[in-house]
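Order emerges. For instance:

***
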Amino acid sequence: LRITIRKNLVSVASQTGTITTGGTPQLEITTIIDLLAGQTIDIQFSAAESGTLTVGSSNFFSGALLP
């Protein structure tokens, strides 16, 4: 599994992890990004292996605007 944070469609941070069948993946990623009005941020999740990714109650995303 891979999680990528992109600014204006350009990767600024990425984290990769692997799991075994029945395992629980845990990916954490942290970055500070300077933004201007009109710029975009997107979070992308991807997997090289086929299978099912089940979204459960332990999934979360948070962000903050710093002064």
In short: The mean pLDDT is 81. The chain is about 0% helix and 30% strand. The first strand starts at residue 2 and ends at 7.
